[in-house]
Amino acid sequence: MPRPAPVTTERTVRNILAAAEKTLRRHPAATMEQIAEAAGVARTTVHRRFTSREALISALTAWATEQFHAAVVAAHPETTPPLVALYQVTANVLRVKVGSTFAMDRAPSADPGVAHVHADVLARCDQLFARAQAAGVFRPDVDLAWARRCYYALIHEASQDRDEADSDTDALATLVVDTLLRGIGAGPNPLQNH
Question: Whole-model pTM?
Fold first, then answer.
């Protein structure tokens, strides 16, 4: 019997990972058999590709991390005007996070490849924030490390409890960027006079 073509195998793996994300998001204790059923493949097909449930979850985390990295890179944050890049990175990342909440909310992986991707995204974000500050998008006195932490928290909160089909990621991105740049207070800063 001929071996399946690599494209078919790759497509099968992607389908299993997508089904795993949706299934585990709704039922974090789902079994390999339930994931196979959701993917429309035999349980043996899942076991042939992933030796254990932990291996499947690890692959799912790596897959979501690759999508996260690609979303940031696609916005060209190093060359696009800072405000445009900030919005585009936010929208792109929200699309990934809303579609991959189970995998993205997992504790950081011990996988060196995943750690490398997160370090690269952090460096790109720091570079974008420095460019934004130099362009006057952020105030000159803003602590950029703190701003980044707030930004990450806003993205995390915006992606929580969202249904992929019902989420308007462009509206969420606008909300995140607006909150980051303008805050939620009204009028002048009352702390400046104290």
Answer: 0.81
